[in-house]
Amino acid sequence: MPYLQYQPVQYQLLPRLARGSLYGLILGLLTMLAASAQRTQSYSEPDYHYRNGLELFEKANYAAARYEFRQYLEPRRGNGSQTLLNTSDQNAVEAEYYIALTSLYVDEPGAELLVDRFVKNHSQHPKAGQLYGDLGTYYYTRQDYPKAIGFLEKAVAQGGNSASQTAYSYQLAIAYYNTQDLQKALPLLNKVKTDPNSPDAPAASYYAGVINFRNKNYNEAVADFRRVESNPIYQNQVPNWIAQALYRQRRYDELLSYTEPLLRRNNGAGLSEVALFTAEVFYQQNQFAKAIPYYKQYVNATGTKAPAAVKFRYGQSLFRTGAYPDAITQLKPLAGGKDTTAQYAAYTLGVSYLQTQNPTFALTAFDQAGRLSFNREIQEEALFNHAKLQVDQNRGADAVRELTAFLKQYPDSKFENEANELVGEAYFASNNYPAAIAYIEGLKKRTPKINATYQRLTYNQGVSDFNAERYQQAVANLDKSLRYPVDNALQQAAQFWKAESYSAGKQYDTAIPLYASIAKGGAGEYATKSLYALGYAYYNKKDYTRALPYFRDFVSRGASADDQAQVQDATLRLADSYFAGKQYDNAMRYYDQAIAQNAPDKDYASYQKAVILSYVGRDAEAKAQFDQVQRQYPNSRFVDESLFQTANVDFEKGAYQVAIRGFTKLIQDKPNSSLVPAALLKRAIAYGNLQQYDPAVADYKRILSDFGDSEQAKSALLGIQNTLNDAGRPEEFSQVLGQYKKGNPGSTDVERVQFDNAKNIYFSEKYAQAIQSLLAFMQEYPASPGTNEARFYLAESYRQTNDPANALRYYNLIVTDNRSEFLVRAATRAAELELKQKNYPQAVRNYRSILNKADSKADQVTAQLGLMDTYFVYPKLDSAATLAREVLTVGNVVPGAQNRAQLMLGKVAFAKNDYKTAQAEFEKTIALAKDVNGAEAQYYLGDIQYRQKKYKESVATLLKFNELFADFEYWKGKAFILVADNNVAQEEFAQAKAVLNSIIENSTNEVIIAEAKQKLAGLESKN
Q: Which residues contact 91 (CB under 8 A, 6 or more apart)?
């Protein structure tokens, strides 16, 4: 590498030389003037010009002085200016000397001829020998080295006084040095440096050392420098030269013996080069700990001027000794360059960031090293480490892209096997199981780790297929997983889900042996789950006798807190199995146990108890139990059933009047109940048995007019015929029958075909054509029993074609009619549309309609969830929280309901700025399931920490997205945008830009990409 070469200070004239030249000349003239004054005591008029010339010369007014000296000489020339002067006239000779001297000083043309003529004409005069030297010194002091050389060469060539000759030799050497004529300078310096009487000897030795160093005569250079190492002028410079010379000769031990004691005595900035070469020796010897303090001294002294390569080795030394934070400080400014040093620095920086648990910054550093190609090996390792880190950070899609590109770029890489293993892991992390499976199946060779990954991938794909109800594909993938039983626990899980797939496809006879093989193990999670599954397999086959022991064993084993819902459900199914086998006492015992467990379906258990009591003839207890269901569970779907069964108990034992009151209560209190037609029929029969024919006929007619398409209609038609006969009014039946036929003409073939055709168009998702067909059908058959069904499909078609107004019109017609089986679905859709259009009161009204009408617990919970979301955006936060708590009490009747409700409690607290409560609720949400609700909760946790200025904690929380919620693209994107916000808050602008660029390059969500671009543009405009 290129080292700094110490450059010597360009010394000009030493003080002694300056005084000994021009000023010495002036003093000499003054002395001569004094002597002349002593001789003459007075000046004659011709001496006046001479005297003025001297005075002007002393004042450096050379042009005027020359004029005066010429005036002085004119009368003394016999026949013109070329006439030789009388050499005995000292003043005249000296005047001529000054004329020659001043002519040079004022750059008079031909001045040098005057000098040469003076020397030739007055060779014996003292001034002749001095003139070349004085002129050389004059130009030397003015740093006009070429002119100085010309005169100094003549002065040295004349010989003479040894002291003057030594001084002129030194000046000539320095003039040569400054004109880069080192070959001529060195012999003169060698001559002066050993002269013990010369004041220029130290300087000569120093400059000789510099020239010898430049000529790579390092031994001679060291000898020259050592000669002046104690000289005050050179003592801070010489060690740098000596250290560098020894380093160039690789005399490392000698260098350390010289520099270390020196640096212990003096670690000032002047010895920074000494510190550098000491550090470099230790670095080459891999003694990094010893190198560090010397690098530090050098870098502190030179600051930003320190070469990047030196800073890199300083950073490397820190890195090699485990001082990673300090290494990062030194390497970080170097990593952004575009040269070899930058590539090495970026790679080392990446490893340092990993050592300090900062994978995000490590990614940026490896990316930088991988973009540079100066060192192919470093580039390869950087690219591989970057991709590997993407896997570690659960950035599956990014990792897959990088690893496949890496294997293509480096087909024979030493990392090939590991890269292939990581591709599988990366696909796994990105949840792209089919691509991962296909990739591994296409490999020519597979390591045990790849097979383990394959087992896991095919298992996960099988479970994914199961959840998507692709049961045949699930079995195929689970069979693939079972062929590589690397992980025993995973093997058992695959066997279980294979059985579940068969069971879900109602292939119970195929599923049962698989469950049984797992259950035989007797221990483990899936052995216990298999008992439950075996019970259900036989239960669904209506083989309740065989279902019994499995449900019983499952219940007796108990379960973890996460499986309590299954235990409660199994308890009910066990009770149902006993009930189906008419083992009523055992059935009652397990229904009671379900109630004691506070099972979500405890209302069902209470109702079933009442039914059993009615079956065994304990009518009073049965009625009391039915009443208890109504009081204890007023919102239960079994309230209607209990009202009906209470009346039915009296009906069955012939207490018709009491039964009539019971049926009347149901009809009046629950007018929207699906049991109203059955209650009307029972009440009509009771009236008939009591020979109260008019109210009986009225009930039959109501069934026929209001519920003509119900299963009770035919019974009502027969019943009214018999009742009118009993009442002696058979003639009225013809009118009743005619009205019934008119209102219920029955489905003709043409009507049925036309309606089926309209529905087929709808189910083919040709919504515009479906609208036309459905409108035509409704216009042609306004009284069709399928009107409400047609309205629903018509509303759905309008919704799909972004016509919410017409969609709402037909949904509301169904809701207003209040009889159709499509009522709940229509009200749900209407509520969703009203919510989207921010018509919150109308949305609430629709959700309330669902709650009042829904027969199933799932429909009720769905309505509660919608109502909860509506109240949150209304905003009516307390109402939203109340609904969320209600949903939490009923369990996961609707998949994900508990997770949504739990998330809502966190969002309500967050909206109220109650971050402590919000954090607790969000953490509960994440613990429930790793679904979209958990992803949103994870984002909010990071947002809370960001708002509290806990930036590092926020980043750590948000980076968990890659591990926990990588497949939820929107919330993952929001999380990493918030990571960039945290970087900005910490003034890590480069890192923020890198994160935003990564989002823009890799996200598939356009909303997220647009937000990232906006953030990036804002950052770049500020920096």
A: 36, 47, 50, 72
- DSSP 8-state code for residue 23: I
**CA atoms of 499 and 972, how far apart (whole Å):** 34
Joined together, the tokens standing for residue 372 give 């540079």
Q: Which helix (H) or strand (E) holds 833?
A: helix 823-836
**DSSP classification of residue 9:** P
The two tokens of residue 684 are 């009509």
Amino acid 142: pLDDT: 85
User: Token digits for 312?
Assistant: 């890199």
Sign of the torsion formed by the C-alpha atoms of 741, 743, 748 and 752: negative
Residue with tokens 């083992």: 583
Give the best-scoring range by mean pLDDT among 133-137, 309-313, 595-599: 309-313
Q: SS3 string of 501-521? A: HHHHCCCHHHHHHHHHHHHCC
Nearest partner of 69 among 82, 55, 83, 80, judged by Cα: 55
- pLDDT tens string 589-639: 999 998 988 888 888 899 999 999 988 889 899 899 989 989 998 888 888
- Give the tens place of pLDDT for each residue, 733-790: 778 777 776 666 654 445 775 787 788 888 888 899 989 989 988 988 888 878 889 9
CA 139, CA 175: separation in Å to the nearest integer?
10
Contact 992, 957 (CB under 8 A): no
* 136 and 171 Cβ atoms separated by less than 8 Å: yes
- Tens digits of residue pLDDT in 515-535: 999 888 767 788 888 888 999
d(CA 529, CA 496): 8
Cα separation, 5 vs 991, in Å, equals 37
d(CA 950, CA 939): 14
563 against 552, higher pLDDT:
552
First to last CA, the chain: 34
Q: What single letter denotes the amino acid at residue 904?
A: M
671, two tokens: 């007018």
Which among 944, 893, 948, 901 has a CA at the least distance from the CA of 919?
A: 944
Amino acid at 936: E
**Closest of 457, 381, 395, 393 to residue 421, by C-alpha:** 457
Question: Helix, strand or coil for residue 841?
Answer: helix
The closest of 312, 319, 315, 329 to 374, measured between CA atoms, is: 312
Taking the C-alpha atoms of residue 698 and residue 701, their distance in angstroms, rounded to an integer, is 5
Q: How far apart are CA 193 and CA 174, in angstroms?
A: 13
Q: In the prediction, which pLDDT does 267 show?
A: 67
Q: Higher confidence at residue 7 or residue 109?
A: 109
pLDDT above 90 coverage of the chain, percent: 40
State the helix-helix crossing angle for 656-669 and 638-652, rounded to 10 degrees: 160
The pLDDT assigned to 954 comes to: 94
Q: What is the pLDDT of residue 562?
A: 54
H or E element at residue 167: helix 162-178
Rounded Cα distance between 30 and 53, Å, is 12
**Can you state the percent helix, strand and coil of the chain, rounding each to 5?**
75, 0, 25
The pair of three-digit structure tokens given for residue 272, joined into one six-digit string: 């920074």
pLDDT tens by residue, 932-980: 899 999 999 999 999 999 999 999 999 888 778 877 889 999 999 999 9
For helices 396-409 and 416-429, give the axis angle rounded to 10 degrees: 160
Distance CA 67, CA 287 (A): 75
Rounded distance, CA 118 to CA 111, Å? 11
Residue of 719, 654, 653, 650 lying closest to 680 (CA atoms): 719
